[in-house]
Every structure is written in C-alpha cells, then in structure tokens.
TrEMBL record, chains A, B, C, D:
Belongs to the aspartate-semialdehyde dehydrogenase family. One of its GO terms (biological process) is threonine biosynthetic process. SUPFAM superfamilies: Glyceraldehyde-3-phosphate dehydrogenase-like, C-terminal domain, NAD(P)-binding Rossmann-fold domains. It is an enzyme of class 1 (oxidoreductase). InterPro entries: ASADH-related (IPR051823), Asp_semi-ald_DH_pep-lack (IPR005676), NAD(P)-bd_dom_sf (IPR036291), Semialdehyde_DH_NAD-bd (IPR000534), Semialdhyde_DH_dimer_dom (IPR012280). This is Aspartate-semialdehyde dehydrogenase. One of its GO terms (molecular function) is protein dimerization activity. Residues 4-131 form the Semialdehyde dehydrogenase NAD-binding domain. The gene is asd. Keywords: NADP, Oxidoreductase. The active site is at 150 (acyl-thioester intermediate), 242 (proton acceptor). Pfam families: Semialdhyde_dh, Semialdhyde_dhC.
Amino acid sequence: MTVHVGILGATGAVGQRFIQLLDEHPTFELAAVTASEASAGKRYAEAAKWRVDTPIPEEIADMEVVETTPEAVPDDVDLLFSSLPSGVASDVEPAFLEDGYVVSSNSSNDRMAPDVPLTIPEINPDHLGLIEVQREERGWDGALVKNPNCSTITMVPTLSALDEFGLERVRVSTLQAVSGAGYSGVTSMEIIDNALPHIGGEEEKMETESRKLLGSFDGAELDLHDADVSASCNRIPTIDGHLENVFAALAEEPDAEEVREAMRSLPGIDLPSAPDQLIHVFGEEQPDRPQPRLDRTTENGMAVVAGGVETTVDGVKYNCLAHNTIRGAAGASILNGELLVEEGWI
Amino acid sequence: MTVHVGILGATGAVGQRFIQLLDEHPTFELAAVTASEASAGKRYAEAAKWRVDTPIPEEIADMEVVETTPEAVPDDVDLLFSSLPSGVASDVEPAFLEDGYVVSSNSSNDRMAPDVPLTIPEINPDHLGLIEVQREERGWDGALVKNPNCSTITMVPTLSALDEFGLERVRVSTLQAVSGAGYSGVTSMEIIDNALPHIGGEEEKMETESRKLLGSFDGAELDLHDADVSASCNRIPTIDGHLENVFAALAEEPDAEEVREAMRSLPGIDLPSAPDQLIHVFGEEQPDRPQPRLDRTTENGMAVVAGGVETTVDGVKYNCLAHNTIRGAAGASILNGELLVEEGWI
Amino acid sequence: MTVHVGILGATGAVGQRFIQLLDEHPTFELAAVTASEASAGKRYAEAAKWRVDTPIPEEIADMEVVETTPEAVPDDVDLLFSSLPSGVASDVEPAFLEDGYVVSSNSSNDRMAPDVPLTIPEINPDHLGLIEVQREERGWDGALVKNPNCSTITMVPTLSALDEFGLERVRVSTLQAVSGAGYSGVTSMEIIDNALPHIGGEEEKMETESRKLLGSFDGAELDLHDADVSASCNRIPTIDGHLENVFAALAEEPDAEEVREAMRSLPGIDLPSAPDQLIHVFGEEQPDRPQPRLDRTTENGMAVVAGGVETTVDGVKYNCLAHNTIRGAAGASILNGELLVEEGWI
Amino acid sequence: MTVHVGILGATGAVGQRFIQLLDEHPTFELAAVTASEASAGKRYAEAAKWRVDTPIPEEIADMEVVETTPEAVPDDVDLLFSSLPSGVASDVEPAFLEDGYVVSSNSSNDRMAPDVPLTIPEINPDHLGLIEVQREERGWDGALVKNPNCSTITMVPTLSALDEFGLERVRVSTLQAVSGAGYSGVTSMEIIDNALPHIGGEEEKMETESRKLLGSFDGAELDLHDADVSASCNRIPTIDGHLENVFAALAEEPDAEEVREAMRSLPGIDLPSAPDQLIHVFGEEQPDRPQPRLDRTTENGMAVVAGGVETTVDGVKYNCLAHNTIRGAAGASILNGELLVEEGWI
C-alpha cells in the first residue's frame, strides 16, 4: 500500500531532511513539494540550496515546486508533512485542514491548543483521539497532529520512563546543536569559541509541551501532567544532536540501575521508522556517553540515548541525547504520519 | 613593599597564566619557577611550550627553572603559588609547609581538609583563621591556603548573593571550556562538533567545595552550608570561560530584579587583583548574555558575569560565567596571596 | 592637535572595530557615527548590536546616529572613515567627496580606479600623490584613499620585502577567519567541521590589488607590478586572523635566512597606530608559527607575522598572518588617515 | 572465495576504521587483530577505546587481541593490513615479510624505498611489479605494498588526469582534518579558533610520494615523475576530510572544461571497494564545492572530489578533497589488498 505524501516548506533545512528520510520509505511516496511563491515553478534542485550530506534523490531534483496552497497540491496526496516557519504555518495549515488534508506538522504553532494532539507515537499514541474533538470544534474534515519541539522530544521519553517512580520536579539544561535553528539561524561569529545561553521561546516549549505529552487523555479532555518543569536552553558549536542534563525529583527512591532498567524497557512501537529500542542507555562504566558526534545516529537517528545516571538527594540526574533534525523534527513527523496510517486516520 | 613569589609547576597551562598575570603585578615579584626534574636547569623559555597569547616576559624567559623542592627554591621567596597536578602536589606541598613556606595553591588536593582554608577573598576571607588550627594540628610553620575549582568559583559568588533569600537546593549544569583540562587534556577528536557530558571528579568538587565556601567558621571549626547541591558537568568546544546554568530553590520568594540587585551589590574587596564589582549582571533586555567569548575578560577576567535571571516555582534560575584560568585558577591563587599579605600572614 | 573624525557605516562589524580602535587614539576624536536611515536618530548603543569583546565606550554609546549623507554629518568633521558595504559606498562616497570631505575607506569599490590611491603607509605612501590626479579628473575638493582587502594586506608587505630578489610569480592560498565576512556573513551550519573553498571576488582582489600596491607611481600614472599572482581563498572555522601560504618565484636565489632578514628589516613608519616592526618573522625552530589564535594580536593587531620560510626550486615558500579586522580593515583605514594628516592632506 | 585478513595495530584510529570498513566486505574476513604487548590477551572491546560513529561489530568486540608478532598471528591469515606507527612498523613489518606474509601497509616507513610499490590501484597498478624486485633483493617470500599518505592520495588522481596536458610544476596548500593525526595527535587547545601551518614531514611526503606514484616502471626500475612539486600543509578544525588547493603549471593550455573532463573521465578500476567514478568534479556553477563536511563521504568516502577549476597564466588552479581516514588510509590499504588478490599475489 502506497501513501502519497507532500511536504509543505520543502526547501529549508528540515524540508531537506524530510526528503532524505522519505527517499527509501517503504510506503510513503513523495508526490508534492511546496515552498514560497518565489520558488513555485522551479525545479526542486534549483529552488533549494541542498545542504544535506547525501545527494538529492534524482527524481526529487527534477520535481516542480508548487506554492503552499491547497489548490496547488495534487488531489491524490493523502498526507502532508509541514516544516513551515510557525508564523506561516499558523496561516496556512488551517486552509489545508479545511480542505480535508491530514497534516503531520513539525511547526510550533498550535502545539499547546487543547484540541490538537501533540504526539510521540511510543509515548502517547492515545492522544490521537483528540482528532475527534478537533473535528467537532473546528469543523475540519482533515486532521492536524503535531510533534513536539526537538529539545522536548529528547527528554520526554526518559521522563515517561521515570514516571513510574512518581515524577515531581524536573530541572533540565540543554546543549543544543546549531542545526536546530535552521540553516542561517546561528551565525559563525556567534558560536565559534562560544556558547549562547538563550534560545527564544525554547524554555517555555520544553516546560509546557512535556507536561502535555505526559498528560492523560480521557477521550474528551487532556490533563497536563502536574510535574514542575523548568529548563535552561543553550546553543553550542555542534552541528547535530541535542544533549541534555536532567535533574528529576521523584516520589520514590529507585537506585541508578532501576532507573536505567526503566529506561531500557520502555516499550517501543511497531512502525517503519521507529527504532527497535526507544531509549539506549549507557551504564556507569561509560560515564562520558552519550556524546553528540558519536551517538546521534543511533538507530538511524531515531533513538534516544541516555547515560550518566546517578541518584541525588531527591531523585536522579542523568543525560540524554537525540538527533534534533531526525528524531527531533522530520523523523518525528514521519513517525506520527505512520501512526496516523496505522490507526486508520488516513 | 615587594613580595618575592615563586610558582610551583610553572611550565604548564596554569603556570603560564600565573606568569602572564604576575608580569605587571604592583607588589609581587617573580623570583622562582619550578618544574619537574627533567626541566630543572633549563631556561624557562626552553622548558615551557609557551602558549599564552601574549609574549613571554623577557626576564622570565631567561630565568632558570629549578626543581620543585624546598632546597632548590631561593630563601628570600615569601610566597609560593602552586599549580602542580594534584597527585604531585599532595606529596610536595607538605614539604614546603614543613619548611615554613606560605603556599597559595590551585591544586585540588586537600581542598576539603577540615584544617585547610578554601577561600575566595570576597566571599569567606574569615576562613583564613583556619591557618591557626592547621599550624597547631600539623606542626607547620608555613600556611596552606587553597582556592576552589574553576567551576565552583564561577557559581559560588552568585550563591552567596542568593543566601540572603535562604538557599536550600542547587541544581547546576556547566558548559566548560577546554583550557580547564590543561593543554593536552581534551583532544580535538573528542570535542570538535561534540560535547562531553562528564568531567572526572568535577561534579563532586562543585557539590562539596561550594558548601565549604558558604559554610561558617566559628574560630575553631568550619560548618558546611546545608544546601543540597547537585551538578552535571560538560565540556564544550570553547577555549576559555565556563558558563553555568543554575537552578536555585530558595526559602523566600524574591523577584528577578531583587535577585539581580543582590548579585550586583555583593561587596567586593580592596586588593590589587580584585575586580571593582565582583558580579556583573545582565538584565532581561539581554537574555543571551553572558557568553564565553564576549564576557570572559570582564574586569581583566576577574569578575563573575551573570544573566538570564528568572523566577521558578521554587526559587530562581540564571546563568553565570567566569574566566576559568584567570578567576578560576591563577588569578584566584594570586588574589588569595594578596589576601594573605593584607591580613599579615606573610 | 585634535582631528575630528566620523565613521560612515558605524554599526556593523568593522564599524564597531573602528570605534574600539579610536577609543584611545592620541589625536583622532570621534565626532560622528552614521548608519542607514532606519538607525538614524537612535542612540548608538541602540542602533548597533555591539559584539566586540570590550565594552562600548560610554560617550559613544550615547552618541546619536545620523544618516549617511553630507548634510547630516557635522561641519567640523575633518576626516571620514568608511566601512559601508561596497554597493552603498559607491553611491555615497562621491557625495562626501564633492562636498570636500577627506575619506579613508575600507570599502572595496574603486580600489582599482587609476586615480584612487590604494595605500599601505609602510609600503607605498607615495601613491597618495594620486590625490592630485583625482582632484583634477573628478573636480573634487576632498580626497578618497582606499586600503586594500584584508587578505591582500596580509600578504603584500612580505611580497614587498621579497621584491628586492626579483618577484616574478606568486601562488597563494588563504585560510581566512569568519569575521572577514561580517557578523552574519558565514552561518554556523556552513563552517563548523568544515571549510569553504571559495570567497566571492576575493581571489581577484588579491590578484589585482597586490599588483597595484607594489606598482610604481611617477607622479602622473601608476604602473602595476608585473608579477603573475594567482590566489585560492578559503574560509575556515576561526574568528579572527587570516593565515596565508605563499609560494613566490624569484629571479634571484636567496636562502631562507636572507628572506627572513629581508622581511624583518622592511622599514616601518612613524605613525601613532603603526607597529614598531611591520613584519615579525618566526625562525626555523618554530615551524608551526604563525598561528591565528596565538599571533593575531601581535603589536595590537597591526603587525604582519611570517614564518615557515623555506626555499623551493624556483624561489621561496612561507606563511604569513595578520588580524583581518584590525590590520586588514579598521586599523588599515585609521593608519591611512594618520598618513593623510602627517602628509598635510588634512 | 574468502580471504582471511589481519590488522596490525588494530586499536588506534586507523585500526578502528579498518574494522568498520571490513565489517561488510564481500571477500575479506577479519581473522586477527594485533596491538602492543600491553593489550595482548584482552578482548578487542576492552583494548580499544572505540570512537568510530558506528557500533563495534559484535564478533570483533569479543575477538582476542594478539601481540604484533608473526608467531601470534594465526597461520591461515593470507593478508595483513598495517596501521602501525611508522617507528614500530619499520621494525615489525620485515619480520612478517620474512615469514612470508603479504602486507598492505598504511605506515609511512619505506614508502620511498626503490623496491617497494607505492600504489593507488586506479593510478599505477603496474607498480606492483616491483614485488619481484623486492623479493629478489630482500629474499622475502611475502610482499610489502604501501599506500601513500592521506594528503598525497587526495591530490595525485587529479594530477594524473592533468598529466595528459604536460604536468610541469605543482604548488599545493592543504587544509587537513585533525583525524589525520590520530586520536590524540592534535589537542583541542591547539586547534579551536585556530589553524596550524605545519605538519611534521607532511610536505616532504607530498612532494616525493606524488612523483613516485606518477612515475614510470619499466619492469626493473621506477623513474620518478619530473614535475616540481612544493607543498604547504595546514591543520584546521575539521574532523574528517582533507581539502587541497592546487596550482598546476602545464605545458599545454587546456581550458577549464577540458580539465574537468579529463578528471571526470579518468578510468576507475573494478574492485569491490573502488568508487564507480574516481574523481567527481563540481562545475563552475558551484564554486564553493567540494567542502569537507558535505562531500567527504562521496561514494562511501572512496572518491576524490574536485571543483573550482580555473585557468591561470601558466596552467590551472583547482581544489580537491578526499576522506583522509577512508580513501586516505584504511580504505586505501584495503583497495591495495583487493588489487593484490585480483592480480594473483595472494
């Protein structure tokens, strides 16, 4: 069974990653790439400044870029991935939804809307049920599903594993790669021999999105998890891979090995792009792992990698890592798309 | 008044920084440089691979390196700075102390010994009183004073400012520069396009040293501060300057401006190398500061720079930065030396 | 004697460097800062995103930015420095010249115009005589002087020293710092763990400007030097300091020490910002120097540093380095301004 | 047909790359890994600090490391790859050769010996004939074949393509990645925000090895190519991939497109690890390619990538790039091993 998919905003950094990941996808076939008016009508290879480290797939290079409107996208497209800037997406996505499209979006707008599922397939697939609420409230035929921010998605699987011990409070610091800001988001003058202790809006995203992802859905309403989450976000001179230091206060007192075991045994999901094991965990004999350059491509960049687990007075501290433009962006949207197909929404 | 000083372990990265900082010191005159047996007898310029970004002072270049023993150091030296590896220092420093030398040491051994003052002159100058205890217990004529680890010293002045609001719990993540590991401590293969989430022993140093520095001394015994401190330490691809994200739980509920004001108004000290203002604080209009490359040389690298202050559910979060080989190492020892002179121990 | 100076395009990366260098200048007093219409009327501290590693001088922070027009600049300004983008400069500079201003410009437009002196004060001060030609041909009361491109200025002093051996052919490769492209010129995604083997227009600048600088001026016309110069320009992940590998074919056969001696003994010039020695040269015992991070600030960033001199079959090879935004940009314009004052053009 | 192979010096950076590349080799099966006495007897996973970005193949992780002596290597090993330090290799390799082993070595010793073939299979496979000379002169039963230095191998295929136009003189500057120096060869303090204009011995290797590779073998003696080659070698802050700027003086005057065409049409070779096309060439519409991060893995890191071709007064200038630890080291030795099998030497 082939699902025809399209990419809204296909020429940017995340758009290019979508194309790379979809290149050998078993069921998704790329049938439309959209961009701004200025790029419409051009061959994809002309419209995009291709900067991924594998060649452009030949058939995509020659594909014509169309404008980001429902009219311009071919009718046989069943599923759209969105990597539009959030300002654009908040205008454009509703038009596609009114037109009946199913959209799996990486854009940050509407992630916290009470009727929009924010989903990591292994963590909260049941939240897709919010689509019914959404359709009722908004009168849409389509469906809008969001994946979380790259820094949120790196941490939440590990928090989900900890929740069995009673997750109460989270303090997290991030060491984020420059690719998270897009191709031109961080200048070289800003980051060489330097670090930036602020990423606009990022801390709030981590604090709110994580509580929604870990929240419970009763079929009608979604309750946020009541953990107190506070984040400090930093940009460092790495290309890909967000590394995070987490301090978690817990109700119970598991030892380090119980925490590692809880992470390792967190169930995965049977979808084409899902990793075999969601969280890989380094033991105490390798305290200097995970590292961005060595571990970001674990399971094709779709796994989370943790390590450095140690108990504290009130809980546990540890480090976690994920590939921010794969598991944290394009791969996350594709996985949500696979879940939508699996669950029959497409 | 001129004080003749010597440097134990003068050829390494911190030793070179000592020489650079002492070059134009108003009262300290460098009279002895020691190194391992292999270097003894050589001109300093031959023994050291000079890698600081100012030229070797000419008179030091021609100075003869002597072995690190009390016999080899000239008798008229009044004060010794130590930047020996801790394994060497724990053997060698006692020999100098038995011989009556006053040693201001950057080496990590004995920092937590109950009779050794661990001092930041602006924060806990009264702890020097431990020298009396030390002399009594060890039968030394000299005096041994330690400065804290570079990552500790970056944070503690800000914690000291917060203590008026009832400091209860600290969670801190560090983004540390490679110079903290010495000239060959971190290879380029380890750190380019990467970050290392572990620095051996560093987290424990931050957790224990900070409680000693903030502790109270009653003239006989030193009580550690009872805050719960937990740290995660990371190495990132920067040359100099440690950046730290601090989450502090407080008994009271100051707002962000009260916290900034408490930091800005922390008293300094009147010593030659001390900064005019100990903590510089960026306001909310510059949330992306401090940054290592732009702010590490504030007040010749002797100030701490803070920013990003925001309240949390249980206290406050903020970032702080200091130059790790100046304020965090050689400059810290020199400032302790100035305090020893000022207080009449030399 | 105080000379009132202004900066055209004062808010950009080079503009900020001008302000830093002029801060303690013995005779130049900054009296005007201009920028685009959008910034006019603002305080300088608001208009510029200050990114130099020393604080904004207080009196400049409060200075009002004016538009880049002759009308907006106060009449008592005697000398203007220009760091405008070349596209803007080619429109705006003539207006100032018609109005009688003397402009020392770092902008690349008109550098190769036959009636515009392109000057390095130590190398070709006599080329200032072209101002007479310029005034006659253009009917200007003012005077326009250019300094060369940052990559050219790094190499030309060494070529000038070699010319006594009959300079015939030059092949040069550059390893250029990102600051040469301005604050946002190179993105972090482009340069981390990477190098860019192309800088638009740079190779041609090196090839033509160097021949003009080394050319001879007979009082009426300027003849280009007839050396065959070919350049390959690369951007690498360094902040400041251009390093260059030069292969020079010579008519004579000097040995390496004669070449080093010719470089070291190249005469300097007695101007406030000039280095004591124009070219510092490392000998064969330090083949790994010059290095950007260690050597770029030699003599406050105004010296050229050479090393690695070795003979080849047809001449010599060596490396040279200069600070691209000091000796290669703002400092170069200031030095030309000092020469203009010294020679009585102001 | 399976060939049992071993790796001499299997725990270092190049040794790890050998293991990674051999993991899915169609005919070579890894049967022995050697290291120094200190590592002998350990499991490979314990002896090596694995730092390649794919996991250790499981069966290798458990393999026992043996000492680097002919006695310790199993008798059924047909072919040895050597990535020993050259000082060690010059002692150890002869022992294996006397014992009849065929050794395809990446170590730099003996590369210029007149009876040792220095081979790139696509360029000079006929030089393998030197093995007969070698056996006669040295009385060995085995055979010793060397591949060139990583910086040489990046350039020589392009020079071979140019030779049809009469290659007369080469001036080359390199921008080399840190992995070329081994895991601990370049410290982070040396290279962050910096470049090193010297790599010990590297320039001479490029100058001599390239002339041997391009030389002609008449069945008895090898004549070096008579081009005048001079190199300047630099280390820059990249992980993998050597970028080189070449200036080549030619007897004829091809235009840029003829040069590109000559490079593109250079014949490849039909061996398992050989790339489909030896030299990939970017045209004038992409002057900023090749770039290390984007292009180093072209054809699994076994291709050379060129670009920036422009004519000069006396020939041509261009840039070339190859993956230094794949095409430039482990992959080069493996390809030579494949050639030895193909030609019947094993």
